[in-house]
Amino acid sequence: MGSPLYQKVIDTIVARIASGEVLPGGMLPSETQLASETGVSQGTARKALMMLEQHGIVRREQGRGTFVTARTPDSSLFNFFRLRNRNGDVIRPELIDERLLERPATDVERETLQGAPLTVIEINRVRSLQGVASAIETAVVPADLFSGLERRAPLPSALYVLYQQAYGCIVLHADETIIAVPAGPEEAKILGVVEGTPLLQVERLAHDILGRPIERRHSIYRTDRLSYRVTLA
Amino acid sequence: MGSPLYQKVIDTIVARIASGEVLPGGMLPSETQLASETGVSQGTARKALMMLEQHGIVRREQGRGTFVTARTPDSSLFNFFRLRNRNGDVIRPELIDERLLERPATDVERETLQGAPLTVIEINRVRSLQGVASAIETAVVPADLFSGLERRAPLPSALYVLYQQAYGCIVLHADETIIAVPAGPEEAKILGVVEGTPLLQVERLAHDILGRPIERRHSIYRTDRLSYRVTLA
């Protein structure tokens, strides 16, 4: 699968933002410099900067240069700390179990994930809150985009930080579909509740800074001890 | 409760935005004009514009004037259309029952709603999807901010449009706390499910364009036929 030339320039810039080499507010090299560094024409470098500007990642100021506008990874990740205790405080349940598995993609995964992957990596995790298993999370990513991920186990608690630092994928946007479901036999066993107990199910499709759908996540929460917080603005 | 003088200028401007008299991108009168129209000093008018700028409602451009940056009510309201059917399409369940009630505020309402109201108006609504009762919503607003609301029944389906058009309150921000709950006897009866059926409970605190907490809303959804969609960016 050949990618257009401007993609090379975009990837170079995104990698610098992801690595922290260029901070929000920082200035990028000029079109001429970018073109020379990445071996493309100045027109191609310009096209890359225009696309990054359309995605809200950079801002070009006439006569001054191009500046990074993307939020820092920390502030963007902060939006994803959605679990709260009864007092409304942010909580980060402890990881108590993790299993990684490489497997063929399902039809839905092939249709919705970046690059129509044939193979995906599935990350199964259980988290506990004050010693009580409270969340079952299954994240699925394209195997080719996250090559070697299974060899990095145990993974850090915050997967998006890993995606960013090891693969240059900055998650900035996600769509979630939320419903209430009764605990099935397996979930009831893991979470220590009786079958049929109401649980919160969150299905998330996360997009990276370039708008590519890079992760599907299916999460199940016991909400007798925690709640899910959403802020709309 | 006396409000500061600049509040009068803010209210005047917000009312114009809410009514559509000034559109996003449109220019506001100068400080001198605003001061003369509202009977305050130029310094007070400047303070009001600075506060509106801090809230992201206007943008002041040196030597050019002050421009409205607030999103149009339509685009902001669109964010609140959160209910989807199984295909992911936006749905707007039909209103099948509405009851309004003026009553004393609870302690929590007095502590969290604008102006620490002694009295609130409670709007109870039931919505159905294709003939099946699917949502029970209870909205609570301060009685003094929404004076005469109970005489406007039946209310339009979208309350935020009413808040905006009749009271100049533009809802732009909301915090939601989401959990799964078992259907109690009353909910089971209204929604036609057996007691204990998992339901989605959404508690929302909505803020207006000035950051004032103007509505508490408690919603219960049957999610066997619909889902709750959240977009994070």
UniProtKB/TrEMBL annotation, chains A, B:
GO molecular function, one term: DNA-binding transcription factor activity
Keyword DNA-binding attributed: yes
HTH gntR-type domain residues: 3-71
GO biological process: negative regulation of DNA-templated transcription
Residues passing through the membrane, by range: none
UniProt keyword annotation of RNA-binding present: no
UniProt-listed Gene3D superfamilies: Chorismate lyase-like (3.40.1410.10), Winged helix-like DNA-binding domain superfamily/Winged helix DNA-binding domain (1.10.10.10)
SUPFAM superfamilies xref list: Chorismate lyase-like, Winged helix' DNA-binding domain
Keywords: DNA-binding, Transcription, Transcription regulation
Full protein name: GntR family transcriptional regulator
